[in-house]
Write a structure and sequence with these properties.
Layout lengths: L4 H19 L3 H4 L22 H14 L2 H11 L5 H27 L5 H14 L8 H26 L4 H31 L4 H7 L13 H11 L4 H15 L9 H34 L1
Helix pairs in contact: 1-5, 1-8, 3-5, 3-7, 3-10, 4-5, 5-8, 7-8, 7-11, 9-12, 11-12
This protein binds fe (ii) ion (FE2) (2 copies).
C-alpha cells in the first residue's frame, strides 16, 4: 500500500483510544440491582414487565443484534488478517467494548422482568448458534458494511432512548451509554473508509455495491420482520430513520456522489442512486402509514 492510508488509520485508532479513556463505563453501575428478585421464589409471570410491550420488544431485539459478537469477531479477524495494524488492533478494542452491550441489556431485562427469561434464553441460544456470515470479501467492503451497522445501531439506541425515557430513566441511561460506544465505533470506521476513498475514489464502486445489501444484524432471528415493524411503529427506528439518519448523511460525509470516477464505477453509482429513489418511496409509505395511525389515535 502506498499512500497515507496506514497513517490515517493509526491516527484514527489513537484518537479512538484517547476518546474511550473518557467515555469508559462499567455495566454494574448502570443496572437497577434493587429490582432483582429470585426467580425460584418468585417465578416470572406475564404482566410483571415494567415497560410498554413494544419498548421491551425493541430492547430485546437490540440485545439480540449484539449477541452474535463471537461470530462478528471471528469473521472480522479472519478477513482482516492481512490488513494494516491499526485495523487489526481496532477489532480487538472494538470487541472488548461491544462485549458489554448484550450483557447489560439482557441483565436489565432480567432484573426488570420484562419478557419471559426462559423464552429469551432459548432465543439467544438459537441466534448465537445461527452465527453470522461476513458481508463482503475484503477488509474495505466489510468496513463499509460495519460503518452502516455502527451508525444504524447508534441511531436505533438514541431513538429508542427517547421513547423509553418516560417509562424508565434507568433504561434511558443504559441506551445512551451504549450509543456513545456505537458513536465512537462509527467514527472510526467512517474515517477509515473515508481514508481509503480519498486514496482511491474507484473504491466508491464497492460502497455502491454494499449499501443495498445492508440489513440490521440478527436478520436471521425468528420473527425479525415483526420486531422491525414494531420498532418502526413504536420504537423510533424504521426505514425512514435508516434512510434519513444513516444512509443519506453517511453518503454525504463520504462525498460519494462528488468524486470523479471511471465509467464502470459510474454505472454502479447510478444503480445506487436508483436504489435510493426506491428506498425514498418505501420510506414515504412508512411515514404515511405512521401518520394515518397517529390520526386514528
Ligand atoms: Fe454494540
Ligand atoms: Fe459498535
Amino acid at each position: 500500500m502506498t499512500s497515507g492510508v496506514p497513517q490515517a488509520l493509526d491516527q484514527l485508532y489513537h484518537r479512538h483510544l484517547t476518546l474511550t479513556e473518557h467515555t469508559d463505563w462499567a455495566y454494574h453501575r448502570l443496572l437497577p440491582w434493587d429490582r432483582g428478585r429470585d426467580f425460584g421464589q418468585a417465578p416470572w409471570e406475564p404482566g410483571q414487565g415494567t415497560l410498554p410491550p413494544d419498548v421491551a420488544l425493541a430492547v430485546e431485539t437490540a440485545m439480540l443484534t449484539e449477541v452474535n459478537l463471537p461470530w462478528f469477531t471471528a469473521g472480522l479477524v479472519r478477513l482482516m488478517h492481512n490488513a494494516p495494524d491499526a485495523l487489526r488492533q481496532f477489532v480487538h478494542t472494538w470487541t472488548a467494548e461491544e462485549d458489554r452491550h448484550a450483557r447489560v441489556l439482557e441483565t436489565y431485562l432480567v432484573l426488570s422482568r420484562n419478557g419471559d427469561p426462559d423464552a429469551r434464553c432459548r432465543l439467544v441460544h438459537g441466534v448465537v448458534r445461527e452465527g453470522w456470515v461476513v458481508p463482503g470479501d475484503s477488509p474495505f467492503a466489510v468496513m463499509v458494511y460495519t460503518t452502516l451497522q455502527e451508525l444504524a445501531t447508534r441511531v436505533f439506541y438514541l431513538n429508542l432512548a427517547q421513547v423509553a425515557r418516560e417509562a424508565d430513566p434507568v433504561l434511558d441511561r443504559i441506551l445512551k451509554t451504549i450509543a456513545k460506544d456505537e458513536t465512537l465505533h462509527f467514527a472510526f470506521y467512517r474515517g477509515a473508509v473515508g481514508a481509503y476513498l480519498d486514496d482511491d475514489p474507484e473504491k466508491i464502486g464497492t460502497v455502491c455495491d454494499i449499501v443495498p445489501l445492508f440489513t440490521m444484524p440478527g436478520a436471521g432471528m425468528p420473527d425479525f420482520g415483526h420486531r422491525m415493524r414494531s420498532a418502526s411503529d413504536h420504537g423510533g427506528y424504521g426505514l425512514p430513520e435508516f434512510l434519513r439518519q444513516v444512509i443519506r448523511p453517511l453518503l454525504r460525509d463520504w462525498g460519494l456522489f462528488d468524486h470523479q470516477v471511471s465509467s464502470a464505477v459510474e454505472a454502479r453509482r447510478q444503480a445506487l442512486a436508483e436504489y435510493l429513489v426506491r428506498l425514498e418511496r418505501a420510506a414515504g409509505r412508512v411515514e404515511a402509514r405512521r401518520l394515518s395511525r397517529a390520526e386514528r389515535i
